[in-house]
Design a protein that fits this description.
Length: 323
Amino acid sequence: MHVFVTGGTGHAGSHIIPELVAAGHEVTALARSDESATAVSALGAKVRRGDLGDLDGLKAAAAQSDGVIHVGYRAELLPSGGIAALGDSELSTVLAFGEALAGTGKPLVVAGSIGAPTNVGRAAPIVAPFRLGRPATENDSALPSRPLDAGTLRARNVVETAVVGLAERGVRSSVVRIPPIAHSATDRVGFTLQLIGLAKAKGFVGYPGDGQNRWTAVHIRDLASLFRLALEKGPAGKTWHAVEDDGIRFREIAEAIAARLGLPAVSIPADELMVPGYFGFLSAVVTVDLPASNAMTREALGWEPAQPGLLEDLDNGHYFPAG
């Protein structure tokens, strides 16, 4: 299969491309700079120069492919337009892909998110209550990235609904929802690193209240394998959950980081959580409890996470280089 990939040099994309190549697929990846072009070539993909703002170019690339994996996003829109601009851009992008693939039965797999702490418009009617009282399933609408964040949630749901709806136009479309923590030895900007950085700066590892709220996670290689499975055999109009388990207690994550750094793990009372408290700009998200199930994903696609879980990966040491 000839697959067109966006976001090929990002954390997810840089593992998705080798996963596809190893499975025998031919990959063409979007690159908007010489540096990106060199990087995608090194991963084994052909290069298509362009950017996500060129919708005609995206449609042409999709039409020339046997399927599309879309994990890129226009980060440059965030400073001036925020989530609204990014959501509008994402909607335009997935609809452009849908137009190019309509009636072909070809796959379109788009990155979404499961209650991500910092939403980038990758997945998008509003869900109430935000806390479901059970692990979220693949049949639930997109969950909020933070409490009462209705604007972001609306954008995520609009995009996700648009992708799933393309099934009615003859596109084998689906969404892979990515959890807040995607970890690996190549993680450079993720939530885990933010927690580690905070701990080093403060001299202890904080967790909110009793720390019993749950966060989902996935190893980036397991995520890449799920994108491949969704591309190869995922039915149309579905959402998939790239989570290793229902969720990990925040306190467990904090204590694992504390053990590696030789620092104490400390409860942060609710009245000390807000900016400029310990968590700073993360204050609005650290208390969220968003467990999610992967049962439907495993059953339908045969996905079996094989890489280390988050706590085990923290013990591998690559998040804590010597020196």
